[in-house]
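Holo model, calcium ion. Inputs:
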Amino acid sequence: MKIPLIIDTDTAQDDCVAILLGLLDPVADLRAITMVAGNVGFEQQTKNAFMTLSVAGALGECPVFLGCRRPMVRAWVSAENVHGDGAGGLTMDNSGIEPEAEHAVDALLRLTKESPGEINVVAIGPLTNIAMAVIKDPTFPDRVKSLYIMGGSNNARGNITAAAEFNFYVDPDAAKVVFDAGFDITVIPWEPLTIQDALFSRQHMAEIGAGGSPVASFFAQVCEATLDFDESVGIPGSSHPDSLTVALLLHPELITKSALYAVDVEADSELTRGYSAMSWGIHGLKANARVIEAVDAAAFFGYIKESMATPTTPSREILGLKR
Ligand code: RIB
Ligand code: CA
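Output:
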């Protein structure tokens, strides 16, 4: 049986790869893409999502809903210094392509009302849309089968500050609402998990890029900026937290170690804004999430390599795509 999912995304680089898994993996039933403010400009993120649909040959097959254009109470913080345009300079003629008219928050509420208890939500950007859906309808968590969140670090270093990972840093207020809402949550943290098990070296990247399909070339070009940035800050490869998050929903056999934690996010301090406190069971706090601690890194790499080699006929020409 297929796994129904909605991907809530700030589409740039690895968000594109995550969407590709949702489109190309035969076990995935991608019901919608919902856009949230995060990595790069909102309009650019939306273009990146449509271009990702196109390279998979799926333009028009999965609805794109536009959501919150800034965090709940703060100004937007971008990661354009990491991602550039988030698409490796690739472009596409977008004429005639329109997102859905319905707001992403309303779409999340409606789609889960139509299929209560069936849909998994994979949140790979700041948690603004998910929190706003909870605030608008507190019964939303009861209708979501599971919520997979890429965010935070498991008592480890951040990436945008020493204390915080980007998604939680951008909208810590939303993250607090979400962890308190009663979802069945799985967390895919930045450190140590992503750096330990979802990092692809230049050699790995070249192998995936040589897959011979439009998707493989797209992957190599789109992820180049992350690879350069990660290396520039001492991380020896390209990081893939968002695609790992989708992969673990679709293929839980990749998970080798996980545990229940009480997760909370710092929203008051400037110094530690977005810090995720993950309590592992000895502090008397009630667990509210499963945190992934280790995955089969070799199998994850093999899965991405195989997925990116899927032959496709792009719906529209991607300008700049090397073949
Ligand atoms: O910190 C990693 C997260 O922020 C990922 O979701 C990625 O898209 C990034 O910019
Ligand atoms: Ca993301």
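The longest strand covers residues 255-265. The CA atoms of residues 230 and 253 lie 28 Å apart.
Archived with the compound record.
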